[in-house]
Amino acid sequence: MCAGYADAAGQSGNKAKAIRFVSGVPSKTGCLVCHGDAKILKTKTKSKTKKNLFVSKNSVFMSAHKDLACIECHKDFSKFTATKDHDADIPNYKVTARLSCQNCHEHVKQLQQYNQSIHGKTARATGEKRGADCVDCHGAHGIISVKKGTATGEQFRMSSAQICGKCHKSYADSYNDYYHGKAYNQMATDAPVCWDCHGSHGIQPKESPYSTLSDANLSVTCNKCHVDVRLEFAKEYGRLIHGSPKLRSDNIAINIAGKVITWVNTNILERIRGITAYIGTLAS
Amino acid sequence: VFADLNIWADVVAVLMIMAPLGFWSFQIAGNTFTGRYRRKFIEKQWPHHDEVVPFSPKFMHAINLTMMIALGVSGMYLRFPFFAAGRDSMKLIHFVCMYILIINAAFRVRYALKKDGGNFIITMRDIVNAPKVLLYYTFITKSYPHLTKYNIMQKSTYGYMFPALLVIQTITGFAMIWPQYIFSWSADFFGGITSAMAWFRLAHFLSAMAFLMMTMIHAFLAITEDLPAFLDFFGIVKHKPHADHGTDNHGTHKDNPTGGFKAPQGSYRKSGSQVYRERGI
Questions:
Q1: Chain pair A-B, CB pairs under 8 angstroms
Q2: Do A236 and B1 make contact, defined as CB atoms within 8 angstroms?
Q3: Which residues of A touch B8 (CB under 8 A)?
């Protein structure tokens, strides 16, 4: 059932209307007549679960795929329109998207790496419920070009903490060491982003010997930007990269200073504020 | 160790900034209670000078100041970026200012060797009188023997500590720019060139903070101890020399052409060492 359609057609606002059509036109404008409406909802007849099917026109027309037709990615579209069983469980769209990505891009290498990665393995092991897929990192309707040296490529790099932070928030938040994290947080274009160190399509858990951060590969990873980084130093400095906040909070001097500031705030400043407020009350 | 040391370096840096603030507070309180500020800022009893400072050292000082501010801001930005983007431009500013500062320092050394280097020579009399200078600045005594243009604190700061820090900054700075060429010897000692760079960077940061600390004290004392000379040094107010300078028995700058190093006996107030000599101590 298509709830938004009725509104778009100027008919009874709250009544859902069944749509019966088959889109055979490889165009976006047709789809966006309905999907460009922010109120469009799909409600399953039996379970009554609702899903917003809104697609922002702006994001589509600003995307790297602005010249593509919707069905070039939504290849399974005709199987799940209202002409078919609307209550059927649609396979995870991410899987379809992954297949679609391969169709246009010669990303065999990336796909192979992804299949061996912790993201790919997790996605398969959990039936695509967990584990990042193409669209989780690259985006869907608003996908931007990640080509190096381009404005969107830089934009993508600078979004790495948000992209990875969707699932790895604590690591994104703690990326605040000198020269790397602090610079990244201030949008320094020469600062490393998550995948510069951790890898991207082939990302492995850090315990894996194949990880870019394993003892075998750590120096190589650091030497992509630095010169003559040896394992001992890489491991030592590595403690700062996501560990600065903890190292700071564990530092005895900072601890004591924090306690002193808290004590001064609660025992002196609060009283001064109280006295000032009292005087203010008397004056008024 | 290195990771923890970096955190400790930040703690030390904060203390190095707080120390001059503590010094300022102490000086403001002491000067106010002892009436020194009243005598200076209200009664205008500023120190006398017998010479007009030439343009060259003033100009070089202004260059130093400007470059150091730019170096300080850009350097702090590199370690603690405090606004978006601009790290490349900050590095560029840091490098350009560093080269100007080094060239300026070379000219200043040349000027010191030709003209006023003697002002910075620490003599035995200075060392003997050092406690008296300290007693004056801790408000225990009302004055200290005025031997030469600069007291021992000034001499050691301008003539030795600032130049020493500048040398350290230059060495550690260049070590970070061309580590593989200049300091390759240190790579094995530190466990790799990047590790060496990181240690040099830490030293660079700490010496920069020492620089900042001393500059904060220097600027404060320059303003509060002799505001007219300070304003004159920056060309804000023209400072005239006092004709009667030195008539109080300590001699003039002309009498002490090398800052007292060759001062004739008796042309200055008796120093501590003289008193001790006369007393046979």
A1: 81
A2: yes
A3: 251, 253
How far does CA B144 lie from the centroid of its chain?
20
Strand partners, A43: A50
Helix or strand run (H / E) with residue A19 = none
Mean pLDDT lowest for which of B15-19, B53-57, B93-97?
A: B53-57
Q: What's the rounded Cα separation, in Å, for the pair B132 and B274?
A: 14
Residues 112-151 of B with CB under 8 A from A: none
Substitution target in A176, A178, A218 with the highest count of B β-carbons within 10 Å is: A178
Distance CA A52, CA B224 (A): 69
Q: Which residue has the tokens 């000692």?
A: B189
B212-221 pLDDT per residue, tens: 999 999 999 9
Q: From CA B228, how far away is CA A249, in angstroms rounded? A: 47
A275's CB contacts (< 8 A; 6+ apart) are none
pLDDT band at B255 (very low <50, low <70, confident <90, very high): low
Helix or strand or coil: residue A50? strand
Rg from Cα positions in chain A:
26
Taking the C-alpha atoms of residue B212 and residue A138, their distance in angstroms, rounded to an integer, is 46
| Residues near B134 by beta carbon (within 8 Å), at least 6 away in sequence | none
Mutate one of B18, B76, B87, B202 to test the A interface: name it (highest A CB count within 10 A). Answer: B87
Residue of B nearest to A257 (CA): B11
Residue type at position B217: I
Which of B1, B84, B191 is facing A187, going by the closest CB pair? B84
User: What's the DSSP call for residue A79?
Assistant: G
Q: For the whole model, what pTM was predicted?
A: 0.78
* C-alpha of A265 from chain center: 39
Distance CA B56, CA B114 (A): 12
> Which residue has better confidence, A22 or B207?
B207
Q: Which two tokens stand for residue B151?
A: 């007291």
Q: Which two tokens stand for residue B184?
A: 């390759």
Residue A24 CA neighbour count, 13 Å, CB half: 1
ipTM of the complex, rounded to two decimals = 0.71
